[in-house]
Amino acid sequence: MKGIPVSALTLGLAGLIPFLWGAANVVWPASGGWVGAWLPPMFRGTYVSLTYGVVILSFMSGVLWGFATKAKGAKAALGYALSVVPALWGFIMVNGDPANAAVNLWAGFAGLLMLDWFFAQQGLAPAWWMRLRVLLSAVVLTCLAVPILLE
């Protein structure tokens, strides 16, 4: 992943662990038992993906807000407005039935990738941003597709 700072790539890849863990628990339900009784159900299967996914959508809203600070005038206002969309989407749309919540979370991450592209096209994100975001988003979307398709 040429040009991506090692720390950003390392932390981004580490941030995939809960999504990978949730998908693994759906594909191999026995994997949830590997952690024993000390890990509550919220941190297994689809629930870990949903909970962590909403946290990451909110985090990414903050990242996009930071990008918006580089803009001026109407461009900044649009950036600020768009930056809160992922957090609001997670708060409003990822709830209720886990199957529907997973679909909505998948849509939220697909939309986030479009917002990443918008900010990059505006010159507000680092040059390496889309290389990192496409990689991470591909893994997240694949992991979130697992409970949608298998449960």
Automatic annotation (TrEMBL):
Keywords: Membrane, Transmembrane, Transmembrane helix. It holds the Pfam family DUF3429. The keyword Membrane applies. The chain crosses the membrane at residues 46-65, 77-95, 101-120, 132-150. InterPro entries: DUF3429 (IPR021836). It comes from the Bacteria. This is DUF3429 domain-containing protein.
